[in-house]
Amino acid sequence: MVQFTKAVTFAVLAAGALGHPGGNVRDEFEKREQHLNNPKRRTLADCHSALERRGHQDLMVERRKARVNDIRARKGLEPRPYLRARDLATIGLTPVEQPESEIFGRQSNCILDPEQTEGPYWVTGELVRSDLLDGEPGVTIDLDINVIDVNSCSPVEGVYAELWGANSTGVYTGVVASGNGDGSASEINNNRLRGIQPTDAEGTATFKSVVPGHYVGRTNHLHTIIHNDATMLPNNTIQGGKITHVGQFYFEQSLLQQVEDISPYSTNDQEWMQNSADMLYQQSSSNGDSAIVEIVLVGDTLADGVYGYIDVGINPSASYSPQPVNMWTDDGGIPVPGSMWQGYPWEESGGMPPGGFPGWPGAKRAEAKREQKLEA
């Protein structure tokens, strides 16, 4: 079992502040650390041998290969060798062909511990749909989220996976905040790049979105929430049940470097934080787990889009209570009364959430904005 270093301890404490402003972060961290370092703790990695014995990994290899071939056919692309994102440097040269089991069968782990913050831009009540684009530009990603029960080591059918992320220039739809693009008031009635999908018999939920852009203080990432025992409503939303996972997905830096050079990503003038400097990214791999999406190229260039997959381990008996800032309705977005995220990034209070936490990433940005106003 991997123990936490002092640097990781600091990062997790800070990440706890992100998720629970006003709470006793140190007590929460200490309990989490004890759980993560418990030799009896089961993780998704513990399940891989069992899944392989049952033939699940072989099934996933064939499924993922078929997904890429189907995407290529729909785009009118000819068959070609399969390349992972880490093979980007070989494009234009003679690619080194690798076994399909290596490309499509990698154990991509997003363990249920430690949970990560839902962030200030979660909008509840989103639609059940697979295609989240609605014309949004960017490098398209066809993403498979594979949900595994870490207790039974079995795929979980019938849970709902929720996915959302920033657009190519680092703006979240569905929210209005000065720290979110230009803070346009019309953004609250936009729900692009947000949606929910049920998992199938193989535990897989499928989405089409874009590789997210970056914004100040964070590396590029996607958010996910797993809903257990929810009910589908006639208006194509879900209700009830409980939340058993709150997490974030990341991408290899080499892929992001290529993506950020493509328009409209290249028009984003916000400061770009690399994976190595992002404390929540560091937290996601602090005990040997990984929240990096495995990426396979669809064509010869990123303009053709990418296919991605990641395994998410959940404990069906767990229950979390993330906080949405807004709710999506038939009439667009509306604020959630009493949400702790209202007013983010809390510039009038020094960039700190209710309850303080001077280390909040928005504090420095808020102070700079106040100084600019004074100079003006």
TrEMBL record:
<dbReference type="Pfam" id="PF00775">
    <property type="entry name" value="Dioxygenase_C"/>
</dbReference>
<feature type="region of interest" description="Disordered">
    <location>
        <begin position="345"/>
        <end position="376"/>
    </location>
</feature>
<keyword id="KW-0560">Oxidoreductase</keyword>
<keyword id="KW-0223">Dioxygenase</keyword>
<dbReference type="GO" id="GO:0008199">
    <property type="term" value="F:ferric iron binding"/>
</dbReference>
<feature type="signal peptide">
    <location>
        <begin position="1"/>
        <end position="19"/>
    </location>
</feature>
<feature type="compositionally biased region" description="Basic and acidic residues">
    <location>
        <begin position="364"/>
        <end position="376"/>
    </location>
</feature>
<feature type="domain" description="Intradiol ring-cleavage dioxygenases">
    <location>
        <begin position="127"/>
        <end position="219"/>
    </location>
</feature>
<keyword id="KW-0732">Signal</keyword>
<dbReference type="GO" id="GO:0016702">
    <property type="term" value="F:oxidoreductase activity, acting on single donors with incorporation of molecular oxygen, incorporation of two atoms of oxygen"/>
</dbReference>
<dbReference type="InterPro" id="IPR015889">
    <property type="entry name" value="Intradiol_dOase_core"/>
</dbReference>
<dbReference type="InterPro" id="IPR000627">
    <property type="entry name" value="Intradiol_dOase_C"/>
</dbReference>
<protein>
    <submittedName>
        <fullName>Intradiol ring-cleavage dioxygenase</fullName>
    </submittedName>
</protein>
